[in-house]
Specification:
Largest sheet: 8 strands, parallel
Strand content: 5-15%
Shape: globular
Bound molecules: zinc ion
CATH architecture of the largest domain: Alpha-Beta Barrel
Distance between the termini: 34 Å
CATH topology of the largest domain: TIM Barrel
Helix content: 40-55%
Number of domains: 2
Order of helices and strands: EHHHHHHHHEEHHHEHHEHEHEHEHH
Strand order of the largest sheet: 1-2-3-4-5-6-7-8
Length: about 450
């Protein structure tokens, strides 16, 4: 039986990507980058830290020593081999073929990839967006070079996490892996860059001065073109943000500024709430990471559960904050839908899923489309690599085709509704949220 191509001709808005973030990587490097869990689980924790440090610095002498002493490279290769049956690996290859041309053998495609990697940084992603038919790509990156990246196509989403963790060392001995440290380092770099723009090399000593700085910095970034905010804090703490009064936040900040060890939560929660109120008042949608992280220990999956957000979502003054929950919240995908159907201002983005899940995405799309209103689902790629941008668009359209025509066959949706839903998921829902014109 042939499946009608409902979604194929439709342009899409990529609601969540990391275009311009990743430097060029070959397909093999991408696979290795996401295959570190096997190594981490088979060497002493310090050896793993050394390996990641040496890899990031391109320190081949140390990498060779670690291979000789601990077999790190052999373990990495095993990890890649074990991951070769994941849908991730399959999608990466599909995306490469679609992007670099289906003609020719793999080696000649990879030669083209390397050639594109030597061109200007936006070249490969521009090609990917053309192949994927995604005229608008929302991208979550600290900065975007507007002399290279077309502002009409690439619209910036800004993480607020930088403001949440001043005076945080970003270090931990308690956790495995490097994710916690890596995310904190990223948050800290953004905070420092913003402080530097105001002539500061460290957060100011008083709470009032910090809040003044933060408000002005937010305002400036939005003026410079940021179209939405994002919270990525699930990577470093539970997302159960609580209402906090200003006095409590102020004493916490000033204790931290004085170098005292206190519970940071009251200040963190205050900042999240303040940024959310800013977003609500300025009609900026707010993306929130929910669900699992990358395949490496460090983030606690239990910190990322969408139901942890219930208190935050119930704050009365935030009833018109447009919240998009990212990645379908795997493995809490039905929980996410329960929030999205309860709150008219909460939306469900299924970025990342199109290149991680084949079967599960079809199951969940069916479940979500049946239970949720037509304005709630948002397509996204979550791709930093252009190969995944292409793969995600292709596999999401395939999944929509199958799920919608199956629902039509089962009598759930009329032919007209099926077309309308495809159009809403791929374009209209994100266009309405972000005010994007055709
Ligand atoms: Zn992402």
């Amino acid at each position: 039986m042939t499946i009608p191509d409902i979604a194929g001709g439709l342009p899409a808005i990529d609601h969540h990507s990391h275009a311009s973030m990743a430097r060029f990587r070959t397909v093999e490097q991408i696979e290795r980058h996401f295959s570190t869990a096997h190594l981490e689980a088979n060497v002493p924790a310090e050896v793993y830290d050394q390996y990641i440090g040496a890899r990031n610095q391109g320190d081949t002498a140390t990498l060779e020593r670690l291979q000789a002493e601990h077999g790190t490279e052999t373990l990495m290769q095993k990890g890649v081999e074990f991951r070769s049956t994941t849908f991730f690996s399959r999608a990466l290859r599909d995306g490469s073929r679609a992007l670099y041309g289906s003609e020719g053998d793999w080696d000649s495609l990879m030669e083209r990839a390397r050639d594109w990697g030597t061109r200007e940084p936006c070249y490969a992603y521009d090609q990917a967006a053309r192949v994927a038919n995604t005229p608008v790509v929302l991208t979550d990156v600290p900065r975007i070079d507007r002399t290279l990246w077309d502002p009409k196509r690439y619209r910036q989403i800004m993480r607020i996490d930088g403001y949440v963790y001043p005076f945080h060392s970003g270090q931990t001995r308690a956790l495995r892996g490097t994710e916690f440290q890596r995310f904190h380092a990223g948050f800290d770099a953004v905070l420092r860059a913003e402080l530097a723009r105001d002539g500061m090399d460290a957060p100011p000593p008083t709470f009032d001065a910090y809040i003044q700085f933060m408000d002005a910095s937010l305002e400036r970034r939005v003026r410079e073109g940021v179209v939405g905010l994002k919270i990525a804090s699930a990577y470093v703490r539970p997302i159960d943000f609580q209402p906090v009064d200003t006095a409590k936040a102020a004493t916490t900040y000033e204790a931290l500024a004085a170098g005292r060890e206190v519970d940071r939560r009251p200040f963190e929660d205050f900042v999240v709430r303040r940024c959310a109120q800013y977003a609500a008042d300025h009609k900026l949608p707010m993306q929130i990471h929910v669900g699992m992280g990358h395949p490496e220990p460090g983030m606690l999956v239990s910190n990322s559960g969408p139901l942890l957000l219930e208190t935050f979502l119930n704050i009365r003054s935030l009833n018109r904050l447009q919240v998009t929950l990212l990645h379908g919240g795997y493995p809490f995908s039905s929980q996410v839908a329960s929030l999205v159907q309860t709150y008219g201002n909460v939306f469900l983005d299924f970025s990342w899923m199109p290149y991680l899940h084949h079967f599960y995405l079809r199951q969940k799309l069916t479940e979500w489309l049946e239970i949720l209103p037509a304005n709630k689902l948002l397509y996204g790629s979550d791709a930093g690599a252009p190969e995944f941008h292409v793969a995600a668009a292709h596999h999401a359209r395939q999944a929509l085709n199958e799920v919608l025509s199956d629902g039509h066959r089962r009598g759930v949706w009329s032919g007209r509704q099926v077309e309308w839903l495809a159009q809403r998921v791929l374009w209209d829902n994100a266009a309405d949220l972000y005010g994007i014109e055709d």
